[in-house]
Amino acid sequence: REALIVTELPYQVNKARLVEKIAELVRGKRLEGITELRDESDKDGMRVVIELRKGEIAEVVLNNLYKQTSLQSVFGINMVGLVDGQPRLLGLKELLEAFLRHRREIVTRRTLYDLRKAKEQAHILEGQMVALENIDDLIALIKKSASPAKARISLMEQAWPPGVAVKMVDRSGSEDIRPEGIPASLGLTESGYRFSEAQARAILDLRLHRLTALEQDKILNSYEGLIENIKRYLQILSNPEELVLVIRGELTEVREAYADSRCTEIVEDYTELTNEDLIPEEDVIVTISHGGYAKAQPVGVYQAQRRGGRGRAAAQVAGEDFIDQLFIANSHDTLLCFSSLGKVYWLKVYQVPRASPGAKGRPIVN
Q: What whole-number distance in Å separates Cα of residue 169 and Cα of residue 272?
C-alpha cells in the first residue's frame, strides 16, 4: 500500500497540531484518499505515516496537504540590517558586502587584541630569560633587598648582561615585539638589558621550579612560538589579502562544522496550488449529444467484450437526440467548444460534469 512519509516540518510548524489538522480534514471529508494516519516519531527522529487508499495518486493527496495544511509554508524575507548604525533594507549583494565589512572589522580588532597580548607575554618571557641567565646575581640582589618593592626597584635600576636574550631579540626584531607603552630606554640597550616594571614583577613572582634547565627550554620554546604569532598578526594587519584569506578560512571551517544536509527543502519560486493540482490525472470518456448534453465518465466504466457481446449504452438520450461527439481525453486536457456564431469557449475536461452511463448529462450551454 502506498504511503506518504513526513520526516521534517517547516519552521515553527507544530507536529501534533499538524497531525490533528490532517485527521480533522479526513473526518470532515475535505481531504480524500487517506485511510490511516500514524505518528511513529521516536528518539531517532520525526516520522509521520500517511497511508493512502488503493488507487489514490500520491501527488494529488500531497498537493491537497500542501493546500489545506501547514505542511508547506511560505516565508517573506525583509532583509533589514544595521549599516553604519542605521537600519537599511538590503539586497543580497549589499547584505554580503555589509557582512564582509563587518567580518573585516571583527577580525582586525581580534588580531589587534591578540597582537597586544602576544607582545605583552613575549615581553615577560624575554625578561625571564635574562633573569635566568643572571640567576645567581639576581638571587643575591633579592636577598639583600629589604622588601619586594625595593627588590623590584633594584632590578629595574641595574643593567643586566642579556646572554642568550641577545639572539632572541635580534632574531625577532625588538621594535616589532615591543609592547605599547614600553620606552626604548628599556629592554636591550648598549649598556645591557634593563627590565620594565612588568618584567620585574614577573621575575619576583617566579617559582623555584621554573629555574630548572627544562623550564628554561620551555620558556624559550614559548617565546619563539609567540614571536611567530606576532609576525603572523602583523602580516594580517599589513596585508589586506591576508585578512581576506583569514575570513575565507574561518567561513570554510563553519561550513565544514555545520555541513549537514538540509532536511526541509527551500525553493526559489513558489507557485500557488490551483484546483487542477488537486485533481488526479486520468483518462475519461466525454460524450456530447446532438442536443448539447455533455458528460464525462471514467474509462474504467467500460470493459472490452468478446465477440458476441451485447455492448453497453454510453448515454441515455431523450426523444430524437443522439450522441454527436464521443472521445477519450485526459482530465487535465482543455476542451474547446465552438458556437454557431463562431465563438470559441474553453473548459478543462475535469469541469465536464461526471455522470453514469444511464444519465444524459447536463446542457453544455450551462
A: 71
pTM score above 0.70: no
Q: pLDDT tens digits for 305-354?
A: 667 656 566 566 777 778 888 888 988 888 888 888 888 988 888 888 88
Please, what are the domains in the chain? Answer: 3-68 (3.30.1360.40), 96-257 (1.10.268.10), 281-363 (no CATH)
For residue range 199-228, list pLDDT tens digits in order.
888 888 877 666 666 677 788 888 888 888
* pLDDT in the model for residue 188: 77
Query: What is the tally of helices (H) and strands (E) in the chain?
Result: 10, 13
The phi and psi torsions of 297 (rounded to 5 degrees) equal -140, 145
**Do the beta carbons of residue 335 and residue 296 sit within 8 Å?**
no
d(CA 124, CA 132): 12
Q: Hey, is 346 helix, strand or coil? A: strand
**E-assigned strand segments in the chain:** 3-6, 34-39, 48-52, 80-83, 86-89, 187-189, 192-194, 283-289, 293-298, 323-330, 334-338, 344-348, 362-363
Contact call for residues 322 and 290 (beta carbons, < 8 A): yes
Strand partners, 86: 83
**Contact between residue 126 and residue 223 where contact means Cβ atoms under 8 Å apart:** yes
> Which parts of 69-179 are beta strand (E)?
80-83, 86-89
